[in-house]
Design brief:
The structure is a homodimer of 135-residue chains. Helix content of chain A is 50%, strand content 6%. With 135 residues, chain A is mainly alpha-helical. In chain A, strands 1-2 form a two-stranded antiparallel sheet. Chain A binds a DNA duplex (30 and 30 nucleotides) through helix 3.
DNA sequence: ATAATAAACTACTAATTCTATAGACTATAT
DNA sequence: ATATAGTCTATAGAATTAGTAGTTTATTAT
């Protein structure tokens, strides 16, 4: 019931890019990694996933780097975590994305509570867009 | 951001024992395992942890088995999950139990949201006592 | 007493996941 | 041409998870 470091890194990287969004400037992997204390080679993979997900754009060569592909207000934390870690659900079977049989189904009331928690977390993080996270 | 199977098994086992609580009858590991579809030898370990945690009492020998050590209304799901899986926090650094440095600290606003989620999950599961889960 | 039953305990293993590193390749600005 | 910066694939070490195995201890019934 915890967030992966990978998701945390993804959020931090996007926040960094969101801060640079107004100026239109690019940020290199190195700059992002150093500003947030993220291992550079690991961040590389994370940014690639974000790129394939359509959240960032990249430019090669000197003066190259990354920038957000859309407005910070159009990117929410829920979708980022889902992209990096999979479903947000506290229990797999509560997920709306997959349905796997898990033992907890044997208690409908417990399942109900976890479903509620999933919705709450989901709603909260869907409303949390990058513009609300820039300093 | 998901619950372990171990926690799910623990909750289901306790619900089973809560259902037998009024009658005062004991439930053997075999009975609990079969009624909830839990691997018997794994459940054995889980019940042992619950016993050491003071949640259940056990009796050896023929006619032996397990029963709750306290009233179902005195046992909440939050403490069970903490016992089995550790802190409930969606992010370690939000935990009140340990303080470890995690990357997310670099964004106080994000940390704030996760802290809120932790409290919400915690409060919800602390109010969820076993008596509310019996059929 | 003894056999049967059921919990207690310890050790182990197989698979998966997570975090991170390595290195070769491609594109681009100067 | 060269340096810079992203792309891609592979891999490795550690930790965790879920589950199994086997032996020991206590208790009940015969």
């Amino acid at each position: 019931m915890k967030l992966s470091v990978k998701s945390e890194y993804a959020c931090l990287a996007l926040i960094t890019l969101a801060e640079a969004y107004q100026s239109g400037k690019l940020c290199s992997i190195t700059v992002v990694a150093e500003s947030k204390g993220i291992p550079k080679k690991y961040l590389e993979q994370i940014l690639l996933i974000l790129k394939h997900g359509g959240y960032v754009r990249s430019y090669k060569g000197p003066k190259g780097g990354y920038k957000l592909a859309k407005d910070p207000a159009q990117i929410n934390i829920a979708e980022i975590i889902r992209l990096m870690d999979g479903a947000l659900a506290p229990v797999e079977s509560v997920s709306t994305y997959f349905f796997e049989h898990t033992p907890i189904e044997k208690s409908p009331r417990l399942l109900e509570v976890f479903r509620h928690l999933r919705n709450y977390i989901s709603d909260t993080l869907e409303q949390l867009t990058l513009d609300k996270l820039v300093e």
